[in-house]
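Severity: low
Component: inverse-folding endpoint
Summary: output formatting inconsistent between runs
Steps to reproduce: submit the following structure tokens with default settings.
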């Protein structure tokens, strides 16, 4: 079955979307700087061998980090409204983005990777330090356990600690023990 076609988009919208950076964004640069400050060097950027080309990847530790922008990836904490014009296009675009994100995370977790998702809003001034401390802790935990955790997806730095989401893959692994 063929994939549904995206609604037509205006030339102006196309130019605006092409101007948006997908690599080396400010949130991504801030996370990388904080990881270097924490002594966690040796990562790969947009590593092509990992599904979804994670923004930051530690192949030896089997850790993949996605730094998601709230608008493009539809942050569950921000509840951003849809654009007012060309609503069908944006709904399809966001649905494809979320489906791709879920697919890539599932593929990595199934392959035994620890997938860490950091939302742009969690990198705000008031929560940046706590988010980075949590991210560093999760990376070191994955390294210390050497893949014995199995595949899992962890949302790092959510608005509240009880909103941290651990994937079903990890829950199933716990149930088997």
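Observed output (run 2 of 3):
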């Amino acid at each position: 079955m063929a994939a549904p076609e995206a609604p037509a988009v205006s030339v102006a919208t196309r130019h605006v979307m092409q101007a948006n950076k997908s690599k080396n964004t400010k949130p991504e640069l801030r996370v990388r700087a904080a990881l270097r400050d924490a002594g966690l060097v040796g990562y790969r950027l947009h590593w092509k061998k990992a599904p979804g080309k994670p923004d930051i990847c530690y192949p030896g530790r089997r850790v993949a980090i996605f730094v998601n922008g709230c608008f493009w990836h539809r942050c569950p904490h921000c509840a951003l409204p849809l654009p007012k014009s060309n609503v069908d296009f944006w709904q399809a675009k966001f649905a494809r983005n979320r489906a791709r994100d879920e697919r890539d995370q599932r593929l990595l977790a199934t392959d035994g990777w620890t997938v860490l998702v950091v939302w742009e809003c969690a990198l705000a001034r008031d929560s940046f330090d706590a988010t980075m401390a949590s991210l560093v802790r999760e990376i070191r935990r994955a390294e210390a356990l050497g893949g014995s955790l199995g595949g899992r997806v962890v949302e790092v730095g959510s608005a509240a600690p009880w909103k941290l989401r651990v994937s079903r893959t990890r829950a199933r692994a716990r149930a088997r023990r």
